[in-house]
Each structure stands twice: as C-alpha cells, then as structure tokens.
What we know:
- This protein is mainly beta.
- The relative contact order is 0.12.
- It is built from five helices and 48 strands.
- It has one domain (about 5-694): Maltoporin, Chain A.
Amino acid sequence: MILKATAVAALLAPHLVQAQEAGDKAASQSDRVYPDEIIVQARKRDERLIDIPETISAITADTIRSAGISSLNDVGRQTPNIILNRRQDNEPNVVIRGVGAFGNTQGVGFYIDDVQNFTDQSAAVEDVERIEILKGPQGTLYGGSNIGGAIKYVLKRPTADYGGEARVEYGTFDTVNAFAAVNAPLADDFAARVSGYYNHMGGFIRNTLLGGHPDASTEWGTRIAIGWQPSDAVDIQLSYRHNELHNGGNVYVTAAETSSGADYVRTADYSEDVMNKRRVDGIIANLSWDMGAVELTNITSWTRRKNDLLWDLDYSSADAVTAFTGDRNTSTVFTEELRLTSADGSPFDWLVGAYYASIDNRGLTNDVDLLLGPDADGPLFIKDYNNGDTIERQYALFGTANYRIDAFRIGAGLRVARSQFTGRDYNVPISVDVNDTTVLPKLTLSYDIAPDVMLYANYAIGSEPGRVNVTTGTGGAYRSERASSYEAGIKGSVLDRRLSFELAGYYIDYKRRQFETQFVNDDGTIAEEVANIGTSVSYGIEGGLSYRPIDGLTLAASGGWLHSRWDDAAAVYKFVPIDGLTVPNSPSFTANASIDYRVPLSGDLELGLRGDYSHVGKFYWNIQNTSFQPAYDLVNLRVSIGDPEGRWQIALRGENLFNEKYYNEFTADVFTVGEGLGAPGTPRRILASLSFKM
C-alpha cells in the first residue's frame, strides 16, 4: 500500500489497463513511458498529461537521466517560451511567456512535492521522479503566488520493494558528479528511502590576477524520506533534506558591448577570493486520509537557509568594494496547506484548500557589510550597509470545481489571498507595511473531439504581492502586479498513440510590472531596487510533437513564438519612455528537439543514442533595448550501452558540442557606457558516466 501510482493510473482511462499489464516489459526498457501515459498531479489529482486543458510539460526520470538534466539551466531548455537559469548569486531567473523577471523579483513559483520553495530553487536536480512545468497563473490550485506559472519537482517516494541506484560521472573542467539512493521496506506498512549527491566543477572562468577559477562550485546534499500507511485509508509521507552549495557567487566578467552583442569573455581579475556558501535544511510532512467520498490532505513544511558571502563588487583588480555577510544571514520559511478533494468518481469533481506561509528575511542581501579599499578612498568599513529586515505573511483560500457532460467539461476556480509584508531599513531607519488582498478567478472549457484529442480554452488572473525595498536606503514600497491570461489550444494522441501533439495560443495583459532597477548610490556603489514600471502585453503560439515511428525510437520537437512589448504610454524607466519596446528576456522564437533511439545488441546489451537541440532567439537584456543576446543554438549528444533492464549502464555525453558562446545573464555597466557584467554560459563539455540500478 506504500505506492499506489500504478493502480491509480489504471483507473484513469480504460486503455491504460493494457499499458499496466505490460508494466514488467516497460520496466525492462529503462522505465520509458509515452506522453499520453504520463501521469501528473498538476491539478492536485492523478491525471493523464493529455487530459489537462492547459499547457503543461512533464519531464520524466528517464528523460532527466538520458538528457543529462542536472540544473535549472537544463530544465529551461526542455520547453519553448521560457528562459530559466541560475543567477550568479544562486537565485533563479525565470521568465515564462514574457511573465516574470530576472533579479530580485518573483513571478513563477518553484515547488518540491507541492510545497513552494523560497530558499534553494536552484539546487541540483537529483532523486526526482518527474518535473512538471505549468504555464499561466496557478493560484486557484496552489496557495503561493504564481502569476506566470509553476515549476514542480516531484521527488521519488519510498516504495514497498528493496532497491537502490548509483551513478558516478567525470568530465571536462574537473567535473565530478555522484549520486546514490537506497530504498527499503522496514515493515509491512513502513518504508524508507535515503539518497545523497555530490557535484563539483572546477570552473571555466580564469582569475588572471590571483589565479584559479572563481566560478568553481561544489554542492552536496542528502534526503531521507519515510512512508507509512497505518491503514488502507491513511498515507503519511515525511522527508528531510539538507544541501550545501559553495561557489564564488556573483562571478561576473566585464565584457564590451558591440553591434553584434557582447564579447564573450572567460577571464576576470578579481582582487578577492570570492565566496558564496548556502546551507539549507527542510522538512515536509504530508498526511493523506481517504475518507471515502473525499480525501483530506495536510502538508506542513519548515525550511531554513543560512548564507555567507564575500563578493568583489568592483569586479576588477582594484582594491575598491568588497561585500561581506551581515549579522542576519538566515531565512526561515513555514508553510501550511490543508485541502479537501472529491474522490467519488462522479462527473463533478472539486477541491478546496487553505494556505498559510511565514517567510522571514527571504532576500539574500538584506544585511550586507562593505569594505571600501584604497581605490575607493578607503579604507573604510561600513557595517550594515544594507541593513534590512523583512517579515512576510501569506494567507489564502482557494478552490476549483469541474463538471463533465459527455465530451464537454467546464471548470472554474477562485483564490482569495491576503499578503502582509513589513520591511525595516535600519540605516534610515524606516519601517513600511504593505498589505494586499486579491481575488483571482479561473475559468476552463474543454471538449473531446476524439477519445484522445481535446480542444480547450481557459482564462485566469494571477498576481504577485507588493513589497518594500529595504536594501537601498529608500525604504520605498512597490505595488502588486497583475496579469490576465487567455489561452486556447488543442492536444491529444493519435495513430494508435504513437503521435502525441499540442498546440496553444495565448494573450497576456500584464499590469504594474515589478522590475529590478540599478543605480549608483552617493558613495559610488551600485544599488538595486524593485519598482512598478508599467503595463506589457504578450501574445504568441507554441506547440510540440512526440512521435514513435518504431519501437525504441522517439522523435520530439517543440517551438514557440512570442511577441512581448511594453504597452503603456506612461511607462518610464530612468526618466526615459519605453512604450513599444520589447520586454527583456523574451526571445521572439525558441525551439527544442530530441532524438532518442534504443536498440538491442543482444539479449544482454542495449545501445542507446540520444541527441538534444535547443534554440534561443535574439532577446534584450535591458528595458531600454540597448543590450542584447544574439540567437544561439546548443547541441548535446549521448551514447550509452548497458543492460536492457537498466541494471547497469556506461554512457558518454557531450554538451554544447559546437562550443557556442553565450551569456546566461548580462547587465549593462552603470558606470561605463558600452561595457557590461556577464555570466558566460558553459563551454563544450564531455562527460563519462557509470550507473547501476537494482
């Protein structure tokens, strides 16, 4: 009774029973599944991916392994109209369909097992069963604010079988990746899973002054998960995770901007041995109680992050500006979600829930000390330069209901939320409170034009609460932002379920956009603050195909076109009108494709070949559209040989094989026109791996 997923999947649709009967065969083929068979919980209940009337991408554990997905950067390349990567201060950058922003603003929620993650969203992708990418506002199903979408990590749960897996990988730039997990039943109704990982990369940016590589990174973590079913009706899942990341933090290179984009640079001349160390501990307790007609779920979480840093903020050999950790380096988060879900199998299904979150000192740089060296007219130690304290409380009631009449379905949802944010700036000193109450609706219509083909349309409103700038000396508050999203599409599976497809168009009206700005303080240092810039409008189209012409061969491709512009005559950035300019980090065209081929060499060996391609069109880094990233293409290839049942495998993987030069981040230098600070993308890398599974 520890794991019910296969039984639930068989109940979802009559033809899935046949797939379940072939379960042993599927397991012997490296746990591969087909798009119409993927079971997700995007709407807090088990459903086939192709039965959900909105754009959702699901990346299975098999794809995570074969495509070498190990970081946020890799996840973002799996679906169109999304820019996703890890910022140099280890926070996430994410823009979906032009919604969201780089820097200290939110917009897209990250989740671990239905718990919103505020602390370590950029942690390594390990022991993950599935990644779900939901596009569009999700507040009616998720307690946290998700104006642009949600990215869910569904971690592997303890099962009733003994098992284990291990993988070790080595490659270019002294890359060492290792992972191991053990699963064991401890009693008839009790099981545990323990996993751990270690990832290291020696870095590829060279410090010409001190030597070494300031972007060198080491990350390790462990997770203990316990599953207990004291009765057929009660399921208790408890997990603890700990991870530590030690890297340079804020490692930017100085690059000249040209008419063809910024020069690609992989050298720096820092005068300091920069450092950023993050430690996270998290606990999640999930209780599910099947009460017959309804199911009760309670999810409680507690997370703590400690962060220490030493950054060279002049990004040069000058002994000028160095930042240190201040007195407050700890963030704590507590969340509670309680929901009731219908479970009687009738044409009318519903879900209602309540959500609470307490988030103290979410910001990474709320409290930072500075040392101004001789090259900045020092030495002068400025204690508590950024001396801020933030307290955030979120409350929400949310619910959805769906009704089916033959092939027609109608769904509606509502979220009523209250956000309370207090920002204290002790440098001024000042204390500012921002309170927001929002009502966010959602409406969905769908019609099955064939057994596995659906037309759908939905409308939803999303909102991100307003907050207070506490690190700039202004204590300025900014208002909540709000997006109205419209989507219509078709998705399904045909040709005896060998061809799966989806096509969607969307329109998003995005008001009071929160955007991070930079300016120079009176003391000559760079400061950042968030402000409401104005209204933008995004519209576009995206689609994808997955085709299995023969057993063992899967071809997949997807692409998206996006038009995202500022549409507000009153929108001004640094006293310059921006109406009609392109929204930053919103490429007009993105695409990806993959070929996965597995063929038996004998009864004991299977050959695997996989190729992945992703394209990112030209986009602008800044609001003024004066700094841009040219279009670039990435190609990865992987070849493997191993046991057909997945008990062992040897693989060789090449990433960015054509050594494409691009930046994951770029910020125009506020001091020098024509220069900027960039975070270069990883050059070509070759990795060899050995894995075992039992």
